[in-house]
Amino acid sequence: MELILDKLTKQYHNKITVDRISLKLQKGVHGLLGANGAGKTTLMRMICGVLKPDSGTVTLDGIDVATEEYRAKLGYLPQDFGYYPEFTGMDFLLYMATLKGLTKKQAKRKANELLEIVSLKADENKKIKNYSGGMKQRLGIAQALLNNPSLLILDEPTAGLDPKERVRFRNIIAEIGKDNIVILSTHIVSDIEHVADNILMMKDGQLIYQGKWQENLGDLEQFYLKQFEED
C-alpha cells in the first residue's frame, strides 16, 4: 500500500500554502507536525480530496484522489468535525455508515464494534449534545473508521481529550497503523512521540523533515522547538 503525493501545490491569493510537496508513504503512523499556518490542514484536505490542488497529484495504490474508489478507501476526521446534536451516538454512526455505503446489517455490526473500541458503548443512546468534548472526539474517530479505511487522516484528533483519553486514543491509532496508512496532524508533540513511526515536519508550506525521529532527532520536542523558535 502506498500513498504518493507528487509536487502538490496550493496557493491562496499571494501566499503559497503548500509548496510542491512530494512524498511516498507506506503503512504505519505518520505524524505531521508544524506551527499554525504551516500548511498542515491544507495538505490534509488535498489528500482527502476536499480541496483541489493548483498543481500536482495524489494517488493511493495508483488510484487518483478525485475518484469514488479512492474515497471508499479513505477515513477522515477534520479539525472542525460536524455532528448532529439531537442524534444519539449510535444513530449518528448508523447514519454515517449509510452515507458510506454500508448495508443496515454491516452498519449495525460496525457501529457496535467501534463504540466498544472508543469506549462509548455505555453512552450509545445518549444525545450527542450531552457528550463531553472528549466523547465527541472519540465519536469522530469512530465515524472515520466505519468503512475500514486503508488511509486514515486525522486533523488535531486529540484536541479536547483528557490525558487518559489521549492514551486510549494513541493505542487505537497504533493498532490501526499496523495494517494501514495513518496521517496524524497535531501540535501536541508527545502524542506524535508515543505513536508515530515516521515524522513529517512542515514549515511555510514546505516539508522540512521526513524520517524516523528516534534515530535522527534525539529529543523530538527540542528539535521541533528549534525549527520554530523564531515564529
Largest sheet: 6 strands, mixed
The parts where pLDDT drops under 50 for at least 5 residues are none
Class of secondary structure makeup:
alpha/beta
- Name the average pLDDT: 89
Q: What fraction strand?
A: 25-35%
Using the coordinates above, name the CATH class of the domain at 3-73 and 149-227: Alpha Beta
Instruction: Bin the helical content.
Output: 25-40%
Shape: globular
CATH superfamily of the domain at 3-73 and 149-227: P-loop containing nucleotide triphosphate hydrolases
What is the tally of beta strands? 10
The CATH topology of the domain at 3-73 and 149-227 is given as Rossmann fold
Determine the oligomeric state from the structure. single chain
Distance between the termini: 36 Å
Number of helices: 9
Q: Strands of the largest sheet, in order across it?
A: 6-7-8-3-9-10
Could you please describe the fold and organization of this structure?
This protein is an alpha/beta fold. The chain has a domain at 3-73 and 149-227: Rossmann fold (3-Layer(aba) Sandwich), CATH 3.40.50. Helix content is 36%, strand content 26%. It contains nine helices and ten strands. The protein has helices at residues 40-47, 68-72, 89-99, 104-117, 133-144, 163-176, 189-195, 213-216, 220-227, and strands spanning 3-12, 15-25, 28-33, 55-60, 63-64, 74-77, 151-155, 181-185, 198-203, 206-211. The strands form two sheets. The protein has a six-stranded mixed sheet, with helices on both faces. Helix 3 crosses helix 4. The chain is globular, with a radius of gyration of 18 Å.
